[in-house]
Amino acid sequence: MAETGICLRLIPAHGATDIPRKTNYDFERRERERVKAEEAVKKAQAKAEKKAAQQGTLDPEPSDGL
Questions:
Q1: What is the dihedral of CA 49, 43, 45, 26, to 10 degrees?
Q2: Where are the domains of the chain?
Q3: Rounded to whole angstroms, how far apart are CA atoms 54 and 66?
Q4: What is the dihedral of CA 48, 50, 55, 60, to 10 degrees?
Q5: What would the DSSP string read from start to end of the chain?
Q6: CA–CA separation, 29 vs 33, rounded Å?
Q7: 53 or 8: whose pLDDT is higher?
Q8: What sign has the CA pseudo-torsion 16, 21, 25, 26?
Q9: pLDDT of 5-35, one tens digit each?
Q10: 51 vs 45: CA distance, rounded Å
Q11: How far apart are CA 31 and CA 46, in angstroms?
Q12: Using CA atoms, how far apart are residues 41 and 14, in angstroms rounded to an integer?
């Protein structure tokens, strides 16, 4: 075999390199805020459902006697 002088660097199959990626603080902050907002919506829905269930058992809506 002839020596060509080309050095081949082995790169892992998953595409990782030796160079770390630059952190994207804006993206990370937006993701944290998005998750927090989703949790707040779920909590508000659960609270509204609980309130509706309590009102349904304690104070039934008056029905029209028609």
A1: 180
A2: 23-56
A3: 27
A4: 110
A5: -------PPP--TT---SSPPPP-HHHHHHHHHHHHHHHHHHHHHHHHHHHHHHHHHHSPPPPP--
A6: 6
A7: 53
A8: negative
A9: 665 565 556 666 678 888 999 999 999 999 9
A10: 10
A11: 23
A12: 37
pLDDT the model gives residue 9:
60
- CB contact at 8 A, 11 and 17: yes
- Specify the residue for token string 């790169």: 11
Proportion of the chain above pLDDT 70, given as a percent: 61
More confident residue, 30 or 63: 30
